[in-house]
Design a protein that fits this description.
277 residues; alpha/beta; Elongation Factor Tu (Ef-tu), domain 3; seven-stranded mixed sheet; five-stranded antiparallel sheet
């Protein structure tokens, strides 16, 4: 029995929002966790961070970019069609408590899971700021949803077509100069998360990165999602995906993932490399 698609929306070029009926996953899912899907029996195992859940309707929301064979096949499905396999929720949920002032920094389609994480922080009593970065205005989505779970919502675009021109770190640095930040959560392109971690480390602000490493089985067996944190080998699928950003060896991850990418074209859906947007 497959998982029926309830709705499908094109958010921007090659970027899709899909809602599926998945009662067990929705019942147990928490912010920061992910699922692994197979479109059909010949499909690759594609990991996607859970973007949203509706517990009353048993609906799971996923956001993905069609960049490879399997996500391309997923993009061809329509409401009423079924996804063959959905495994989850997987991974350790994001640590949610009342830290004080929390800034969620997201890039690319990393903005999708940042919504559910920010919502959880807000419900825990935090003051929540969200910073979303994209290359241009057409790649920014869910603005109303983001505003609904944040005290302040900031947009940066490389070309200045929406929000402030520049990088997410420019906006983060400005906030850091204006007030005390207690906790930073970052999710998106690895180089962006590295830049965020470098910036917050200077001010000793505890920062968590959701690591979108190469992933295959999601159970710690294959070892493809391994990374070095604090000098020790960890596996993003079972030890994460959240890690202390100041302890992550980002350079190692960038070097490893570059094997699968050429001239900004991602050949592996399992990379989850949102810096390809």
């Amino acid at each position: 029995m497959g998982y029926k698609i309830i709705s499908k929306k094109n958010l921007s070029e090659n970027l899709y929002e899909v809602k599926v009926n998945a009662p067990y996953i929705v019942k147990n899912a928490r912010a920061g966790q992910f699922i692994i899907l197979r479109v059909d029996s010949e499909g690759e195992r594609v990991p996607l961070t859970i973007a949203d859940v509706d517990k009353e309707k048993n609906e799971l929301t996923m956001v993905f970019m069609a960049v490879g064979y399997s996500t391309g096949k997923l993009a061809q499905l329509n409401p009423g069609d079924e996804i063959q396999d959905l495994a989850g929720p997987l991974g350790i949920p994001t640590e949610i408590k009342n830290f004080g002032t929390v800034v969620c920094v997201a890039g690319g389609y990393g903005a999708a899971p940042a919504y559910l994480i920010a919502k959880a922080f807000k419900e825990a009593g935090n003051k929540v700021y969200i910073i979303v970065g994209a290359r241009s205005a057409e790649l920014v989505f869910w603005q109303d949803k983001m505003e609904s779970v944040s005290d302040k919502y900031f947009i940066t675009t490389n070309n200045g077509s929406l929000g402030k021109q520049g990088l997410v770190t420019d906006q983060l640095a400005e906030i850091m100069q204006q007030e005390k930040i207690d906790h930073v959560m970052t999710i998106g392109p690895v180089p962006m998360m590295k830049a965020v971690a470098d910036l917050t480390q200077e001010k000793d602000i505890y920062t968590v990165a959701s690591m979108n490493t190469i992933m295959v089985d999601g159970t710690g067996m294959c070892g493809s999602c391994r990374l070095t944190v604090g000098g020790k080998v960890k596996f993003a699928c079972v030890d994460g995906p959240d890690f202390d950003a100041h302890q992550v060896d980002f350079d190692e991850i960038i070097n490893r993932t570059s094997i699968y990418c050429e001239q900004e074209k991602c050949f592996e859906d399992s990379c989850r490399l949102s810096d390809k947007i």
